[in-house]
Design brief:
The complex is a heterodimer of chains A (327) and B (480). By secondary structure, chain A is an alpha/beta fold. Chain A has helices at residues 14-25, 63-75, 124-127, 140-150, 165-176, 195-202, 262-266, 304-326; strands at 2-10, 31-34, 50-52, 61-62, 80-82, 86-90, 95-100, 104-115, 119-121, 137-139, 152-153, 157-161, 180-186, 209-211, 213-219, 226-231, 244-247, 250-253, 257-259, 291-293. Helix content of chain A is 27%, strand content 29%. The radius of gyration of chain A is 21 Å and the shape is elongated. The chains are: A alpha/beta (327), B alpha+beta (480). Chains A and B meet through β7, α3, α4 and β11 of A and α7, β18, α9, α12 and β23 of B. The complex binds flavin-adenine dinucleotide (2 copies).
Chain lengths: 327, 480
């Protein structure tokens, strides 16, 4: 099956939704948003805490509420969506191959493409923490999904590695669900999370934040039984003699996000080795003409409000690109 | 006691036990395959280099040499029919010094004696033409064309599945801890009191084979665990090397290798360290450093930065320098298949054949089944053409739902992996069969959805889904 679109947006999170809506506002007619998940909204669907939208809407919303505003705006337009549909590949001449259970593999030929695939979390393997490989090790985002969407508790005694915002938010979430959070261990001398999250998620619950400390070994055969933590020197190397054993059955990792650019690479798009997102000159256009990028696929954002603002600009650029080509 | 009765009980569902069960399933004899874990291939077979060795390494005249070469032939013959991922990429033992050059000539000679085909000594130029990323210090290499890489999981899952489909009972979570005797049967008793009766017990318990033998009064060998650590690199590094790159063997094994895996990642390792605990599969900072320092001698540009995961395996070292295969002198109800160290993975299909040969020699009468079937077809969605993909999705829409986005694994494949013979029962079981969760995100995205599918297919609550059986529960409980 072949589908034609003026603009195809890959990813139906806040970035993709804002960009698609902006294209429509700028007169583009045939727009298609492709989303892998069963529903639109991206990672926001599992961020059930408040703190979203202060900049864009001037009020405090939860993640799903914030996403819903854009899903509603989209529903008022004739923008087409394909959910439960996975994009398998993208070529430099803007042909997308996508698969779902109803249509099988479809080819989407697009005038312009907007990349909005979001990011993934750094894992234990990338950190190379030595030790055993038991159950009970999760990235903070996966734990967030388990608790908030699946209704499952990862464990009773939790240690969190990394003080990124997702880690901080999960420290509070785990505590509220009845898990004892033994501490948040951050390898750097200062937390990477927002000040308000340190106050509201750790301090308010008496959860200790240990700076310049990291986990150097994981213990436990079947489930996690504990981790060895140690202080690190200025080169981030563990200091001998500072090792300490912390008993826990769960280890959450909040150690960074990486833009999800496998599709971009397949299309030959240049990737910035630092941000791990596409190199964009102006208007969020990548090194391949007619392909734009926005949201966490472009670079990792702290705040969804900023994702929205930039994605609007990306949508506008894509519309301008199409118009300049049709006249 | 009212135990299920078998002619043969194979203890240990590693690659050896699986291929023995496979061979036995060709006959009418009643067989069970007993495993202490929740899945097959959880011992040495789980974590190794996954190389199908050509056979130039073992000392001529040993059982190891004979079964290695025969095993290599059998893998090349059977892998398509049984759908075992295998790529005959060839191996190079590279020489980095004058000493090494003498060693590779010696290996070449040994190979000829062992009957290995496709061996060739290459010059420096020929070597670098095949492998441009090798160290400039390289002085030549031994090329072995019949060597290849496989999936060591599938090397065990495939024969176990065929065995189960052909009437063998796979009994999981049964840790043999005791034996007694009754009416010509040996009663195997598990740690939680379950029993199974068999006329002949085939001991393929890997690093624990000495403990099983001891239950039968056989203390003729002991097993020493020797750990090897590995790292897997991101598939963006896949062109680093195209063959299996060995350094000449050292005292404790085949040295640090750098190779493509069957899936196109790069593997670096193993180290060699004698340890005390037979189950201690930890990885260590020192081990990782040793592996990379060693690997850089062959391929200077390999880097720790590209690691996506690390693991370690336990070599079951029998101390006899050869495989120990045959009836126990101490107890005729026991048949040992022990000391199956490297190249055990390669040799396993031949070990299966050899066990039958030995049993026949000792007077056992086998009757062939006429309906034995070893055809196995596994759908790997990612590898299908678009037309084939569409045909599969039309047959079963679950093939249209991608669950693991890093490795493009569909719900249809995950369901298959659970429903097949010797199927998956836990997260690691799914991962090992279909690679869901093996990619860049290591299950971050698909983990919860795989849990859902397992819970539905096995009809257990989500909170009872485990990572690898036993107490390895993924989650603690449902939230309130
Ligand atoms: C776990 C986590 C928690 C966060 N918590 C907060 C928070 O509390 N507050 C805050 O302000 N910010 C938070 N963020 C920051 C986040 O960066 C933004 O808020 C925002 O969600 C990013 O939007 P996006 O559209 O770029 O990405 P996403 O929301 O991740 O959306 C990307 C979408 O693309 C889809 N997709 C990816 N690949 C494909 C493909 N091949 N085919 C089809 N579809 C595909 C995905 O399924 C997903 O729906 C969090 C981020 C993460 C990862
Ligand atoms: C680091 C390393 C690298 C290697 N590389 C290669 C290679 O590249 N190529 C190659 O050909 N070979 C290689 N090998 C060798 C190969 O992995 C082994 O020879 C092979 O896996 C041994 O298989 P097995 O079935 O005999 O033992 P195992 O796989 O250990 O199986 C024994 C099984 O018995 C079960 N068991 C134990 N005790 C009991 C009990 N009491 N009750 C019930 N069940 C029990 C265990 O759980 C286990 O599943 C390597 C080995 C290691 C460790």
């Amino acid at each position: 099956m072949i589908i034609n679109a003026d603009v195809a947006v890959i990813g139906g999170g806040p970035a993709g939704l804002a960009a698609a809506i902006e294209c429509r506002k700028n007169g583009i007619e045939n727009i298609l948003v492709i989303e892998r998940d069963r529903q639109l909204g991206g990672i926001l669907n599992q961020c059930i805490h408040p703190g979203f939208g202060l900049h864009v809407f001037g009020e405090e919303l939860t993640g799903p509420e914030y996403a819903q505003r854009y899903i509603n705006m989209l529903a008022e337009t004739d923008i087409k969506t394909m959910t439960d549909t996975m994009v398998l590949s993208l070529s430099s001449d803007r042909v997308i191959r996508a698969v779902n259970a109803q249509t099988g593999v479809a080819e989407i030929h697009a005038g312009a493409v907007i990349l909005a695939m979001g990011c993934r979390e750094r894992t234990r393997g990338m950190l190379r923490i030595p030790g055993t490989r038991p159950a009970g090790i999760y990235t903070a985002g996966t734990a967030q999904r388990l608790v908030n969407i699946e209704g499952l508790m990862p464990g009773k005694n939790t240690v969190i590695l990394g003080s990124g915002d997702i880690g901080l938010i999960m420290a509070r979430r785990m505590t509220l669900e009845g898990s004892k959070v033994k501490g948040v261990y951050e390898i750097m001398p200062k937390s990477g999370g927002l000040k308000r999250n340190i106050v509201q998620c750790l301090n308010d619950f008496g959860i200790p934040l240990h700076l310049s400390k990291t986990a150097i070994e994981i213990h436990g055969k079947e489930r996690v039984e504990g981790v060895t933590v140690a202080s690190v020197d200025e080169n981030l190397s563990p200091i001998k003699g500072t090792e300490e054993y912390v008993e826990c059955d769960t280890l959450l990792l909040s150690v960074g996000l990486i833009p999800e650019n496998e599709l971009s690479r397949g299309a030959g798009i240049a990737i910035d080795p630092k941000t791990k997102g596409p190199v964009c000159e102006k208007g969020f256009e990548t090194s391949v003409p007619g392909i734009f990028a926005c949201g966490n696929v472009y670079k990792v954002y702290d705040l969804v409000d900023n994702v929205t603002k930039d994605s609007v600009l990306a949508g506008r650029s894509a519309a301008e690109y199409l118009k300049s080509r049709s006249f | 006691m009212n135990s299920q009765k078998y002619d043969f009980a194979v203890v240990g569902a590693g690659v050896s036990g699986a291929w023995i069960a496979y061979e036995l399933s060709k006959y009418t004899a009643k067989t069970c395959l007993i495993e202490k874990e929740n899945d097959v291939a959880m011992g040495a077979t789980k974590a190794n280099s996954a190389i199908i060795h050509a056979g130039y390494d073992p000392v001529p005249g040993t059982l190891m040499a004979k079964l290695n070469v025969r095993g290599n032939e059998l893998v090349r013959e059977l892998h398509e029919k049984m759908d075992i991922p295998f790529r005959q990429i060839g191996s190079l033992v590279i020489a980095l010094s004058e000493d090494d050059e003498a060693k590779i000539r010696e290996l070449y000679e040994r190979g000829l004696k062992n009957g290995v085909k496709g061996l060739k000594i290459l010059t420096k130029e020929e070597t670098l033409a095949l492998e441009p990323n090798l160290s400039d210090e390289v002085r030549g290499a031994l090329l072995a064309e019949t060597a290849g890489v496989c999936s060591s999981f599938e090397m065990s899952v495939a024969p176990a599945e065929v065995a189960e489909n052909n009437g063998v009972d796979l009994i999981r979570n049964f840790k043999v801890e005791n034996v007694s005797y009754e009416d010509g049967y040996t009663i195997l008793v598990s740690s939680d009191g379950k029993t199974v009766a068999a006329r002949t017990v085939i001991n393929a318990a890997g690093v624990h084979a000495d403990e099983i033998a001891a239950l039968f009064g056989d203390d003729s060998f002991t097993m020493t665990p020797r750990r090897g650590e590995y790292s897997i690199l991101d598939n963006s590094c896949k062109d680093l090397v195209r063959h299996v790159i060995f350094q000449p063997p050292v005292k404790y094994g085949k040295g640090i290798l750098v190779s493509q895996t069957v899936d196109g990642n790069i593997i670096v390792g193993p180290t060699a360290e004698n340890i005390d605990d037979k189950e201690d599969k930890s990885t260590t900072t020192e081990g990782q450093k040793t592996a990379f320092d060693g690997a850089r001698r062959s391929v200077p540009s390999v880097s720790e930065r590209d690691v996506i995961t690390s693991f370690s395996g336990i070599r079951p070292i029998g101390g006899k320098g050869d495989f120990i295969i045959g009836f126990s002198d101490a107890n005729k109800a026991l048949f040992n298949v022990a000391g199956i160290e490297s190249p055990g993975l390669t040799a396993a299909p031949a070990i299966g054949e050899y066990v039958i040969e030995k049993l026949i020699e000792s007077g056992h009468k086998f009757v062939k089944k006429d309906d034995f079937d070893n055809t196995r077809i596994v759908v790997r969605f990612k590898d299908l053409s678009d037309e084939e993909k569409n045909r599969k999705i039309a047959e079963n829409p679950l093939y249209g739902r991608v669950i693991c986005r890093c490795e493009t694994v569909t719900e249809g494949e995950i369901v298959d992996s659970i429903r097949r013979g010797a199927g998956a029962r836990d997260m690691d079981g799914v991962k090992r069969r279909v690679r869901a969760g093996m990619g860049r995100c290591q299950g971050g995205f698909c983990g919860p959805r795989v849990m859902e599918i397992l819970s539905r297919e096995l009809d257990i609550p989500m909170s009872e889904v485990t990572k690898f059986g036993g107490g390895s529960r993924m989650t603690e409980k449902e939230t309130l």
